[in-house]
Amino acid sequence: MAVDRILMIVSDTVRTDMLGYNGGHVRTPNLDRLAAKSMVFDRYYASSFPTVPARYDYLTGKPAFAGVGWGALPRADRSIATALTEVGYTTLGVVDTPFYQVNGYSYDRGFNFFYDMKSQLLGTPHYSSYSAPNKTKRQGEGKLPQWPITGKVKPDPRTGEMDCPAPLTMVQAAKCLEQVYEDKFFALVDTWDPHEPWDPPAYYTRHYLPDYAGERVHPPYGDCKKHGMTDRDIAVARALYSGELELVDRWIGHLLDQLAYLGIEDSTAIIFVSDHGFLLGEHGLMGKMVRRAPGEATWMRSPLYEEIAKVPLLIHVPGAKPGRTSKLACALDLAPTICDMAGLPRQPEMQGHSLLPGVLGQPFEGRDHVLTALPLANPGDTVEVVDDLMRTVVEWQPVTITTQKWSLLYAIPGEPVELYDLSSDPKQTINVAEKHPAVIRALLEMYAEDLRRAGVTNKYSDPRLAALLEHAS
């Protein structure tokens, strides 16, 4: 089958367990109604982490963690936008995630039309500090260097909800659909919200914290207690995040409604996905990675727990029956799925598998495991991993290997190993690594095959696979 209209919606940093259709506490009526007519992938995971590596995975079907990392889309790589444009789709991008075009990254390559909204506060003094007199909770005095990633000397003023990035992006996308809805099209709509800074209008936040008094909490990216976060700070952070997620849902609803007004709701395939989640106090941590100190350009051991690695994926195809599946899938599978929707063959370099058979109710096995990883780096390396800034890797970073039953967090021999039985311990509270050495070895063999398939260089593969290499010799 070939679908003439494909809409892909990306929302950054979404906690799948907080969404309404998953029994979460956040009000998400629009995603709930999309889920009701979609295939819900309950065990969908990030592959390369975080923002830019995830977009590389989406657009190419290849793992960024293996070499490209956080950086430009290489000229040699062919994105799904290029492939779809070449076969006659009108390809459109509307994004406020601020890394598609910055520094020559060229993630807009292949699109017929591309709108970079430049509405996020990244690169401005507002990003990690707030101007709420007598209410600001500063988690450190470190100051990020400023650079004009928005392309503006001073960010546009926000006078109300409509000035927030997600509304601006969804409204622009709805306007663009008016111009292309009669064509075959592929539209990528990508909002960075609910990524921090969490600054939704207060009325959203009060849905989750009725006595909210205007406080701002910026995540310290580390241990909550070490950084002096009080119970109130954590409650405020969770309420701000929840409010911003509800705001995103409201404006995704605006975009979905546009499909109905244009008369194409019943002929448009829709994908909703996020790149990764976020820790909001779970495991004693606040953030998606761990810094040695706020504002410091270093990365310490940063475990990718379920709250970070497992993310939402909804796929609606006209005529397909809705449902839920617990089969494993990951970000590498999106590009082959979109190619399959368009009737294109899977490009040979892609390392993912089409999820379309599962959506259509056909036989579908899913993956036997998923590898979730930062771009591979060794201690002492300087890398661009978060917010496009160079930071030094101080400690070995664990990857997460997930199967239907197990979650293994592993870096190199001699470093801490965490193994969790997700069937009995989905919150990952009891480390059973010492009890199951054979399970760890089996998972590491899967990991080794992933690194070989991805062509990871010896500099990065040898220290990580040392235990297996010694055993083999």
Kindly describe this structure.
This protein is an alpha/beta fold and 473 residues long. Helices cover 26% and strands 18% of the residues. It is built from twelve helices and 20 strands. The protein has helices at residues 29-35, 51-60, 80-86, 165-180, 202-205, 231-261, 306-309, 334-341, 356-359, 437-454, 458-464, 466-472, and strands at residues 5-11, 39-45, 90-95, 113-116, 136-137, 185-191, 216-217, 222-223, 268-273, 279-280, 285-287, 298-299, 313-316, 323-330, 370-372, 382-384, 390-393, 399-402, 406-410, 418-421. The strands form five sheets. The protein has an eight-stranded mixed β-sheet, with helices on both faces. Strands 15-18-19-20 form a four-stranded antiparallel β-sheet, covered by helices on one side. A three-stranded antiparallel β-sheet has the order 8-11-10. Helix 4 (165-180) runs parallel beside helix 6. The longest helix has 31 residues, at 231-261. The N and C termini lie far apart (49 Å).
What topology emerges from the helices and strands here?
Layout lengths: L4 E7 L17 H7 L3 E7 L5 H10 L19 H7 L3 E6 L17 E4 L19 E2 L27 H16 L4 E7 L10 H4 L10 E2 L4 E2 L7 H31 L6 E6 L5 E2 L4 E3 L10 E2 L6 H4 L3 E4 L6 E8 L3 H8 L14 H4 L10 E3 L9 E3 L5 E4 L5 E4 L3 E5 L7 E4 L15 H18 L3 H7 L1 H7 L1
Parallel strand pairs: 1-6, 1-9, 2-14, 3-4, 3-6, 5-7, 12-17
Antiparallel strand pairs: 2-13, 8-11, 9-13, 10-11, 15-18, 16-17, 18-19, 19-20
